[in-house]
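During the no-cost extension, the postdoctoral fellow (Dr. R.K.) reprocessed legacy sequence entries with the updated structure-token encoder. One reprocessed record is reproduced below for audit purposes.
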Amino acid sequence: MVVRLFNALFRGPVLEKDPYRGKANYPFYGWLCLRYSYEFKRKAIEVFYQGEWPQTPNGVLPHSFHEQIRCWAKQEELHDLDINKFYGVKKNWSLDDKYELVYQVLAGESIRPVAIAAGINSGLLYKWVHKYKTLGYNGLINKPK
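Re-encoded structure tokens follow.
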């Protein structure tokens, strides 16, 4: 019952790859780069708190999927329920905010817990730490694209 309800909430259609730009539109499912709906995340967290694991979507490694659910649950514990919503707009981090997170990592804390506590992807924090180590404080400045 829980698995059927869970699968019904999953939105993962395969979309065509744009042949001119080399990118696919979100959400897509065929290339293992998933964007889950907020409802899907909530149901996954509910099943997780019941001591069970929801069915892993096709093409996704169970370990990776379980780790993602643990991350969603931890973010909700540290922030609020809306932290896992995708708004489509990136937050502009100030230099001081970036430096504070980088400083925590350089002081010995692990990247993943710091990123989860901040509500960001650990890859983004890793990139900030790398830029700080190579370019210093000025490496944290957003460059125009």
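The helical segments are 2-9, 38-49, 62-78, 95-106, 111-118, 122-135. DSSP finds six helices and no strands in the chain. The remaining legacy entries will be reprocessed before the final report is submitted.
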